[in-house]
Amino acid sequence: MRFPARPVVATAAILSTLALAACSTGTEADEADGALVLYSGRSEDLVQPLIDQFEAASGIDVEVRYAGTTELAALLQEEGDATPADVFFSQDAGALGAVARAGLLAELPEGVTSAVEPGLTSTDGTWVGVTGRARVFVVDSQQVGVDEAPSTIHDLTDPSWAGQVGIAPTNASFQSFVTALRVLEGEDAAQRWLEDMIANDVQLYSNNTAILEAAQAGEIQVGLINHYYWYRLEAELGAEGMRAQLVFPAAGDPGSIVNVTGAGILAGAQDDPDALAFVEYLVSEDGQQYFVDATYEYPLVPGIAAPEGLPAVAELTNPDLDLSDLDTLAETTALLAEVGLL
User: Containing domain of residue 57, as a range?
Assistant: First the structure.
């Protein structure tokens, strides 16, 4: 089994490291000058062009602090009311739910929350969904035929897949998937699936990109990733260069979920017009089109077409899963640590 370095989730050591990293991305003088402070769990290469676009359109300066979504959610809960953050831009709904449950997010105006269809945003108005990302299997098409590909996550515990499946347990999207599994099938079933995967010599990677690259190189036969990583690589290599191919899990399977990225305004910035302007921009036509064109994610605002070739988001959404129920992130990371994946 390939093990990455093990993080210690939500400890004082991580929080201190994040605080130092935050200082390295900006200065106290920047904050004193009134820049909008954004905590982004979305990576710089994905969203900095969008932030630049917003700054040019609005004239608002944005100071961004990048880190993992899980770590930023923990940092926000540690900082509490003293946080310098104005907006939290999260990679997944679970982290937003955890921060909201801690009472740290302001209620957004109805005009913002109603821009996104119900089921793809918060139920209490504390955060708004921005983009959708489908969980999928990526398979090495040279080793796995269409009729041989798994259709559910439970197929992956079969001995025929021993040593051939890749996951990224430190990744926020994987953690949200495990949370969904806990919600849909129960704690015992989620733990049993994780333990069965470990017993089946699951291969561990640091992120979705590494899993996709492993499938592309034939190192593994199957991986669990978000759909848009494949589309980004396909845009770079061309369809003929893609040895790795996508397989969508069966509808209703715990592996077939559409998680969302999203944003919320911190309670201390409730009346900050710049914070509201940024969140509004994320669900504007320009903001949504950026994600379609640049990151191949699903737009969540009606009237904006999804990237070509993707199934309709309604075909993938699990009707038994309320994204607001993904807020038990701490319980998921505790479970992953208990079974030895963190």
Answer: 12-132+258-311
